[in-house]
Amino acid sequence: MPLPKVECSFDIPKPFRWNDSFKVFYHGLDAEHKVLFDGVFNVNEKRGDKGTFDLAAKKFKEHFVHEEADIKKGVDSGTISQTYLTAHAAAHNKFLEVFGSFKLPVGDDEVDYSMKWLVNHIKAMDFEYKEKIPQ
Fold first, then answer.
1. Are 105 and 47 in contact (CB under 8 A)?
2. Three-state SS at 103
3. Burial of 114 (0-12, 13-18, 19+ CB in 10 A)
4. What keywords tag this UniProt record (predicted)?
5. CA atoms of 82 and 75, how far apart (whole Å)
6. Please, where are the H alpha helices in the chain?
7. Which of 31, 49, 28, 56 is nearest to 115 (CA)?
8. pTM score > 0.90 for this model?
9. For the purposes of burial, counting CB atoms within 10 Å of the CB of 112, is it exposed (0-12), middle (13-18) or buried (19 or more)?
């Protein structure tokens, strides 16, 4: 599968670590985002390690389930549209499809895609739900 192009106008942190510029201000989601950054960082460091790759894939899946459930709370309260949730879930599913297609050892293009996707997704899409999810 050819990698989709990720349009990312945001800086990619070097080293690839979560920082405060990625805060969505929901403790659980911020903590999970840190784990996702760590996962991509570790896949980059251990490109041929199946356990590292599988753990990252698992953490992405778990986070997407949690995040979509939280966004649904916003839909139910009227602060977030169903259209936004549907688009958000579709973006998650597409990422999982692409990430799941990677062959080991993971190459530069796959690492670059994953880094750009995560940064862009948080800053361009996740930031839209700031202050809209009921606590």
1. yes
2. coil
3. buried
4. Iron, Metal-binding
5. 6
6. 27-45, 50-77, 82-100, 108-120
7. 56
8. yes
9. middle
